[in-house]
Amino acid sequence: MAGIDLSANMLDGEIPWELGNPRHIKSLNLSSNFFVGPIPTTLGGMGEIESLDLSHNELSGPIPWQLTQLSSLGVFSVAYNNLSGCIPNSGQLSSFGRVDSYLANTNLHQITQGNMCAAPDPVAQEDVGETPSDPVLYAVTAASFILAFWAIVAFSFYHPYGRSVMLKL
User: Fold this and answer.
1) CA dihedral 18, 107, 50, 55 (to 10 degrees)
2) N or C, where is the chain less crowded by C-beta within 10 Å?
3) Is-above-0.70 flag for pTM?
4) How far apart are CA 40 and CA 46, in angstroms?
């Protein structure tokens, strides 16, 4: 697969960390949606990505230092979000100008010679595991299973084909 384009689909919530798992994706476009929360650090593992567009969302927090590991990145935009902190000045991210890539993130600032931002210790990276913390997802899943069960029972008793199968048992 060459790329994933989910732009302008009215998607919301946090960007799933699993999107960083495909290693051979060349392009990821999640622009013009309603994504909130931080940029997943797992996106830094997309070793072959050449274009990453997260612009026009409601993302917040810092730009993860893991994105500096994207050595093939030629197009990058996080413009029009609510990002804060320092713009990483290493790797490919140092080659993108504030005007285009980081536009309208009023709490983002560039690193100056006297004002350095320290990157977190790579050894102390957070464990990227499954986060079973969405009770709404579990409730919807449970309700779906219950509804499917009762639909099969109702079909078995009330539909002519279902009754004939039940009578044979």
Assistant:
1) 80
2) C
3) no
4) 12
